[in-house]
């Protein structure tokens, strides 16, 4: 991380964060919370997602919304080719299809969005991040560490995110780019709505979670902000669980 980038992450303009941040999957859930966190600090934020128009009211007005399908490499490249500067890339886009991921076509689609889409965004942003001394945070999952019997594709894709994060961290350290990941546990988003609606399932999850509650998207956003900030300037290749102690229980 360059000295210039350090100053910008601190914010030497009355505490204002002057970085440019792109958040894939930034129009809902964890991604929207990350976009809001950076925008509130003063950063220039671009939220990339499939439902950019439908995100009104969920994001600050200052956040620019761009609709892109991460399975289309050319769209990502064209978008980032029009970005003048990039300091932070957060890859939060993801899908899950419980009970249907043993279908090879569904499996391939989930992996294409969650893992290959993340790789596409990382590669397309490399040169911009090298010039700024920037960083990447990928959104993995607690299922990066153990199996999800109903979601083999999601599990495989999130396991791949952890290893991709480590590989890119090693490969790009010489370019001044840090690459880390967060591994959320049970977070209150649309992806867990089905589980939260089932009283028995919800009770099992909360009973095993030492902190005794569902996580909030803002909890994950705080961890992302840390990994992108000066206090993490010597951290790369790390995968930080944000799960209320679920993995430790």
What's the alpha carbon Rg, rounded to whole Å? 17 Å
CATH architecture: 3-Layer(aba) Sandwich
Name the shape in a single word: globular
Query: What spatial order of strands do you see in the largest sheet?
Result: 3-2-1-4-5-6-7
Tell me the name of the CATH class.
Alpha Beta
- Report the oligomer: single chain
Q: How many domains, in number, for the residues?
A: 1
DSSP summary, beta strand count: 7
Helix content: 40-55%
Q: How do the helices and strands follow one another from N- to C-terminus? A: HEHEEHEHEHEHHHE
**Helical segment tally?**
8
For the largest beta-sheet, the strand count, sense and barrel status come to: 7 strands, parallel
Mean pLDDT: 93
**Cα distance spanning the termini:** 35 Å
Looking at the structure, the CATH topology is Rossmann fold
Q: Structural class of the helices, strands and pairings?
A: alpha/beta
Task: Describe the 3D structure.
This protein is an alpha/beta fold and 249 residues long. It has one domain (3-188, 217-236): Rossmann fold. The chain has eight helices and seven strands, in the order αβαββαβαβαβαααβ. The chain has helices spanning 3-10, 29-40, 73-81, 104-132, 152-172, 193-197, 199-208, 217-228; strands spanning 20-24, 44-49, 64-67, 88-91, 135-139, 178-184, 239-242. Strands 3-2-1-4-5-6-7 form a seven-stranded parallel sheet, with helices on both faces. Helix 2 crosses helix 8, helix 3 (73-81) packs parallel to helix 4 (104-132) and helix 4 (104-132) packs parallel to helix 5 (152-172). It is globular. The N and C termini lie far apart (35 Å). The mean pLDDT is 93.
């Amino acid at each position: 991380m360059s000295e210039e980038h350090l100053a910008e992450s601190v914010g030497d303009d009355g505490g204002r964060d002057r970085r440019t941040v792109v958040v894939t999957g930034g129009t809902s859930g964890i991604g929207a919370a990350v976009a809001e966190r950076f925008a509130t600090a003063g950063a220039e934020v671009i939220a990339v997602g499939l439902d950019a128009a439908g995100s009104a009211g969920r994001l600050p007005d200052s956040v620019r919304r761009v609709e892109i399908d991460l399975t289309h490499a050319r769209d990502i490249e064209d978008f980032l080719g029009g970005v003048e500067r990039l300091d932070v890339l957060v890859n939060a886009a993801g899908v899950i299809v419980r009970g249907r991921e043993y279908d090879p076509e569904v499996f391939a689609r989930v992996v294409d969005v969650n893992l290959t889409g993340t790789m596409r965004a990382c590669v397309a942003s490399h040169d911009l991040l090298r010039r700024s001394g920037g960083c990447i945070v990928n959104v993995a999952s607690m299922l990066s560490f153990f199996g999800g019997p109903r979601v083999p594709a999601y599990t495989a894709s999130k396991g791949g995110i952890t290893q991709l994060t480590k590989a890119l961290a090693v490969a790009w350290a010489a370019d001044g780019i840090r690459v880390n990941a967060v591994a959320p546990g049970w977070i209150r988003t649309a992806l867990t709505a089905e589980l939260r609606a089932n009283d028995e399932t919800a009770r099992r999850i909360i009973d095993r979670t030492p902190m005794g509650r569902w996580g909030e998207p803002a909890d994950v956003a705080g961890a992302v902000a840390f990994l992108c900030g000066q206090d993490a300037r010597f951290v790369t290749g790390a995968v930080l669980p944000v799960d209320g102690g679920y993995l430790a229980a």
